[in-house]
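Deadline looming. Please check this record:
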Amino acid sequence: MTAGNEISKEPLWIAMEKRILEHASGGSSASDLESAIKKIASELDQSGYSVSNHAGNLLQLRWAMEEKNRNGKALMQDLNTAIKKLTFDDVENAKAATARIISALGATWPKLQDSERKPAILDMVEDVRLGFLVQRAKERSEGGGIRYLIDSEIAADVILESLGITQERYAQEVAAIKAEEAKKEKVRSLLEAVADKPEEERIKHLINHEITDELILEIAKVELGSIESVRKSMEEELKDQFLELRTIDLLALDRDIPYTDMEFTCSPKTWQIKDIENTLKYLLYINLPRISVDRTNYEPIPKQYPYEQNHYVWPITEEKYGDTHVSFSYDESWPFELYIRPNQGKTLRSNANRGQGLLNVLCLQLWHFTYDVRYPVLVTLKDDATRTHEDYTFNFGFDVSINHNMPDKSNFASSTFSFDTTASEDDYCSGAKANILTVHTFENVSTKEAGDLITEIDDVDISFTCVNMRCPVGESEWQFRGAVSYVSKEVPYCVNGVLRGEKEGYEEVEMFVTTDKEKSVDLYLRPTVEIPISIIKHYEMSPSVEEEFEEEDSAYITLEADDFGSEGAFSYNSTGTLKLLANWNYEYNLTIYLMDESTIRGGYQIIWTPDWNKLRSAKEIIFHVLERPYSEDPEKLAEMITKMDELSLRYSIPDPEIITVIRPR
């Protein structure tokens, strides 16, 4: 069963056949038949079915009883036997299994072939399938069982109930699946970039981007021996990349430097690149002097520092130099080059995700950043005085280079990253080989009813970014007396550069463009409107009474319409806004969760189609939510989340109000 459990009566014909089976031992005379029909009809009436006083239903019961007498047994007897014989292989395709049962029993029970009876039999087969799936899930580890049922398209609430797990545990597994899927997508993207390269280079490319052997085997479809061969050759290369590896350790292990992680929160995580740079420079200043060279004269590292013992002694040579001291240093005032991707200018930001189904209220922040780093290291060799020479000190320097979180002794390719401190965006944008790029700008109102409504617009701010160099293109303008709107400019040659269009009142749009020749492209922007929101509560015991938010209250709102999504938050003494699509009456899936400091207290869910004629002049949207009594019962909480739409209707929670005049506060 792929949907959650719903409380509903079984079909009348099933209820009839079950009671016929219970009375199967009765006689077959006319008086016995009439007595049984009357008794079963009465039982069905008491169960909420109308049979005794419904001529059609009573006739259906009579036909079923006559058919039972004619065959000498109850239909449910044969149907139950057929269901019990089902194997897991049979129910893997539930619809096919249902068809086979109906075909096998149809000759004896012709009415079983009626189309309205098929759904009930399919439900019985689905229940058997679910039983098999849960049994197999319980034979696995907890995480494996959860994944098995998710892969089998079992609903979240059914998984929670069947496996006896908490929502939090389910959310953890869903988040892990999402993270793994993101990694697989990353592997596919990396492979596409080197599709024309030999197998050894493709494997090395994946290893350099921290892809596990398991994912390489699964996605790249190569032999394990090939991976081991490439990894062995790379390990030989890494013997001379000791300081790069220690720098990567500092990046990955320090709490103040974002690397790869996730956190359950609705608030985006942000970091300032300058703060990260200062932190890393300080870590290098502190840690590089602690590195020693094996087989030279150095102070042994105490046992209470096992990490330093295993990672801070550099095995450079096989010969012993007992009179030589080697030290490494970096000063925070020295040159330092850092580039982090993805970035938003001077800031890094996590990516927001939400759970699925029962857990769509949970927010998840994910981040994975790659670093390019280059800095100089001063090496000091000091040889103590001996009989043959006086003490001697020699200083020299070299660069430590990291490219995409990997050691890199080569020069970075200009298409990847350049540490040339004399280069600037102005130099790059005006001095590089260039081709003319013409960008036409359009408004696109995409509708189900009328298709795409496209009109040209001006004043769109256009930019073109190649790696980390952003080149302004200008704003689109009306040309030829308002016939068309576009902007043309020479931009640098770039493979898969990012063309970006921005205009107030529209969603920002991006597309990849390769500027290998003169080119004309179209940018389509979707109009939006951002409107202030407020929320009013309706307590379950008195839903007609409006109540203001209290200090501990907060609400999380989501709007979904095809490929558009918007979310907003509202809390006590705060003002929030919500972004909606403009210029059409769009249909949204609206969901609101009312929360306090510890749990979900209520909410609202509906299919909402706001009138654009009202939205265009809206000063505010008032949302109404249901507040339920506090409960720690996970089943009640799960029921509330999964049936929020039913509860919203049951308690007559008002629809959202579009306010077109400013309300007094």
Notes: Residues 355 and 362 are 6 Å apart (CA to CA). Residues 1-7, 411-423 have pLDDT under 50 and may be disordered.
